[in-house]
Specification:
Layout: H1 2-27, E1 43-46, E2 49-52, E3 57-63, E4 66-71, H2 77-85, E5 94-96, E6 99-103, H3 109-146, H4 152-185
Antiparallel strand pairs: 1-2, 3-4, 4-6, 5-6
Helix pairs in contact: 1-3, 1-4, 3-4
């Protein structure tokens, strides 16, 4: 019995990981206002390696339409500026010493619709991830039944619980993406 509870707890833990990853991806999408999370996924070529921007600089929001990046090492400023410009975010950074200013232009209607499509793509990837977790756990349950560690009734009960949990997580993703869509489309 405790093995079944552990199985369901593991399922929830792995699905929570998919939700957290999805949230992280959504934070990187631009909305109408500046967010330091916008640059989280940017990787910079520096010191002969590829490093996340957070390991080279501090990103802050100076106002609703401006991000500032304080690079710690002046030899890395050009690399950070180049990585931001090449990140396909439509940003044009300009540096002043070790400080990089990034004005955020207002989003056009087309760009907003594009970002909504990207958010739905992230949602679908997360749903696939959740379904993969469900499949793995269902295989484990079937193996337990085959090995006579649980009976058929327990297997069906667990299968129903696993499906119910999966449906809850899919619903969470749908709610999160709907909220993000409203956020992006709000001018």
């Amino acid at each position: 019995m405790t093995e079944n509870i552990e199985l369901l707890n593991d399922l929830k833990k792995r699905m929570d990981g998919a939700i957290n990853s999805f949230n992280h991806n959504l934070k990187g999408l631009r909305t109408g206002r500046a967010s330091a999370n916008l640059l989280d996924h940017i990787v910079v070529e520096a010191y002969g390696d590829r490093l996340p921007i957070a390991q080279l600089a501090t990103v802050t929001v100076s106002d609703a339409r401006m991000l500032t990046v304080q690079v710690w090492d002046k030899t890395a400023v050009k690399s950070v500026e180049k990585a931001i410009a090449n990140a396909d975010l439509g940003l044009n950074p300009s540096s002043e010493g070790q400080l990089i200013r990034i004005p955020l232009p207002p989003l056009s209607e087309d760009r907003r619709k594009e970002l909504v499509k990207v958010s739905y793509k992230y949602a679908e990837e997360s749903k696939v991830s959740i379904r993969n977790v469900r499949r793995d756990v269902m295989d484990e349950v079937k193996k337990l039944e085959k090995d006579k560690q649980i009976n058929e009734d327990t297997m069906h009960s667990l299968s129903d619980q696993i499906q119910k949990i999966t449906d809850e997580y899919i619903k969470k993703i749908d709610e999160l993406v709907k909220h993000k869509e409203q956020e992006i489309l709000t001018v």
